[in-house]
Amino acid sequence: MHSVIRRALMFVVLSAVSAATTACGPAAGSTSESRPSPAGQRPLTKAQLAEALPDGGELPGFTTVPQSMALLEAEDVVTADRPSCRPIADMMSVRPKHPRKAVVWATMKPDGAAPEAAPGSVTLTSHTGQDAETWMAELREALTECRGFTARSQRGWTHRFSVRPLAAARTGDDSVTYLLTNVLSPDGKGNVMTVVRTGGVFATYLMNEDAEVPVPVPASVASRQHKKLRAAAARR
After folding, report:
1. Torsions phi, psi of 77, nearest 5?
2. Residue 91, helix vs strand vs coil
3. Least crowded by CB within 10 Å, which of 41, 71, 87, 116?
4. pTM here?
């Protein structure tokens, strides 16, 4: 059961996969001015990320539950058929172009949601400062060019996804938001993905597309987590 939950929340709507078997500039979701990471700062460790991971009701309007199982495993190597889409596909791959140094994650459920409603997730990943800045820049470029791609995983699945850039809250040192949808999703809905960079850390929010208009993670949530990550980096 835990492996099913984990795979269903690994940055893409793999629950829809099983059932069916950001752009450049402020208007497209980035902050108005990207802020560089402090030079020479070491990536946060898994323990440091875990301290910064939200738990319980820390994020306004949501209940978060930290997870102990691995988000990605060795066979979760994902590739895209279009090179321009690789930065997006890498978000769901255990072997991205820019390596993650540590990963922690939690489920994230809106307060008042039905018990049977699938939760979203928040994932914290640490990188070298240069890798984090470069990957974010590549995500912004990808969201100007990539509108869909076929992803293949060494786990054994092949599926096509559509990509739609969305406007994002102006928070963090840099951010992008986009809608990622499995084209075979029974209800035609996908996940609203928001990636917020804080120094060398990505906070990636997966929100289920439940409304007619895709709704990204609230700015109040992303801003609070950004401040928590800055505090974690300052304590090093």
Report:
1. -95, 115
2. helix
3. 116
4. 0.86
